[in-house]
Specification:
alpha+beta; globular; Uridine Diphospho-n-acetylenolpyruvylglucosamine Reductase, domain 2; seven-stranded antiparallel sheet
Length: 424
């Protein structure tokens, strides 16, 4: 029960409370406060930092809270926080509806949404947090609040990108959108085309319409040579999608992959096999606006020396609606047409940790001149406390004020923590 996605995390709580409902959550929070215990919240357990598990305290396990109610007429869904993306999609797709979530179906909806939620529908419908209409929250005093545009609107603002700093979210209400079959998939390009493929990807993604979301990645082949993969998801009319994707279909000489009509739920599961539980993970991340020739050379140089066959460097595009939001409209501040640049290092044998971590750090430092001083909070690792301000950007001080109002003693501190500030 204390195991999480990242096998590098090996903490031992003194006790684990498996919550069946909101009453259990309220009692757990009160118990931890009364006995001055560290409190961690486990829902999906997919966060690379492993903050779902505490050392010597109380782990509040809400992963069993999986209720969901879809209202197809209002196009909304109220979902408990223990649901995974795939479980959520299973229910909403029964009505031909979806909301923007992530790209791995075994991710928990709660942590993903509270940190922003960048997924395959971000161009057309925004981030997961942009589609959160309300949240039920157990606060530091053990009371249940509903945060929405009309109730506790300051807390509602903070929850949309501010992470788990403000309480235990037990349920979320989402806006849904009509999504059924998408035109999606990916194409792989061999080492001799890798440089041109990255240049093409940047040009192609830069001109993409809102209906098209893209992700590029760099890895190595069995001979240790860099390869490039370009993945796409078009959520508009399929005939128009074929026209939009024609330049990609015509580019180069792909050596693998395919693009075609696919049920949205099936495509959402496509990356699951590449990130199974039980591997060691160490990530470094930032945002990249321009994929210059210099950045491409660094990527290809380091891709050729990747120490693990499971490691990749991702360039998932933030585009369309997600990129055009006012940075202060929600707590998620980093709104721009840009790439979520992620060095996703994973390996199996703990004895290989030093070698993989060292390569990841060196790759990140070499890329730093091309990166923004910002980071997607959901990609932050366990030892990156110095980057918390960069994760919340221009909204940090306002978030600190909301934190002071709802959690002045910083009881919820096992997260990418925002210290209580001055109440505005």
């Amino acid at each position: 029960m204390r195991r999480v996605f990242n096998a590098m995390i090996d903490r031992r709580p003194s006790m684990i409370l498996r919550c069946a409902g909101v009453a259990d959550v309220m009692q757990g929070v009160r118990f931890a406060r009364t006995h001055q215990l560290p409190l961690s919240i486990h829902s999906g357990g997919h966060g690379v930092a492993g903050t779902a598990v505490c050392e010597g305290g109380l782990m509040l396990d809400i992963s069993g809270m999986k209720g969901i109610r879809v209202d197809p007429e209002q196009r909304t869904a109220q979902a408990q926080a223990g649901l995974l993306l795939g479980e959520f999609d299973h229910e909403t797709q029964a009505f031909g509806l979806a909301t923007p979530l992530g790209i791995v179906s075994v991710t928990g909806i709660a942590g993903l949404t509270l940190g922003g939620g960048l997924g395959w529908l971000n161009g057309k419908y925004g981030l997961a947090c942009d589609n959160m209409l309300a949240a039920d929250v157990v606060t530091a005093d053990g009371e249940l609040l509903t945060a929405s545009a009309t109730e506790h609107d300051d807390l509602y603002w903070a929850l949309r990108g501010g992470g788990g700093n403000f309480g235990v979210v037990t349920a979320l209400t989402y806006q849904l959108h009509p999504v059924t079959t998408v035109l999606a998939g990916g194409l792989g390009f061999p080492p001799e085309q890798a440089r041109d493929a990255l240049r093409f990807y940047h040009d192609f993604a830069s001109g993409a319409p809102d209906e098209l979301s893209t992700a590029g990645s760099v890895a190595r082949d069995a001979e240790g040579r860099p390869t490039v993969w370009i993945a796409v998801c078009y959520c508009g009319p399929l005939d128009e999608g074929e026209r939009v994707l024609q330049p990609l279909r015509s580019f180069g000489r792909p050596v693998g992959g395919e693009i075609g009509p696919v049920p949205y739920q099936a495509f959402q599961c496509g990356a699951d096999a590449s990130m199974p539980p039980g591997r060691q993970h160490f990530w470094k991340s930032s945002y990249l606006t321009d994929l210059t020739d210099g950045a491409i050379e660094v990527l290809l140089e380091f891709a050729a020396t990747i120490p693990s066959p499971y490691t990749g460097i991702g360039l998932q595009q933030m585009t369309g609606v997600a990129s055009r939001m006012d940075p202060r409209a929600t707590a998620f501040a980093h709104r721009d047409r840009q790439y979520d640049f992620l060095i996703l290092s994973q390996w199996e044998d703990p004895a290989d940790s030093d070698r993989n971590i060292d390569w990841t750090r060196r790759c990140f430092e070499a890329m730093r001149p091309y990166l923004k001083e910002a980071v997607y909070v959901n990609n932050l690792g366990d030892q990156e406390h110095d980057r918390v301000r960069a994760a919340y950007g221009v909204n940090y001080d306002r978030l600190a004020a909301v934190k002071a109002r709802y959690d002045p003693e910083n009881f919820f501190c096992l997260n990418h923590n925002i210290a209580p500030g001055v109440v505005i």
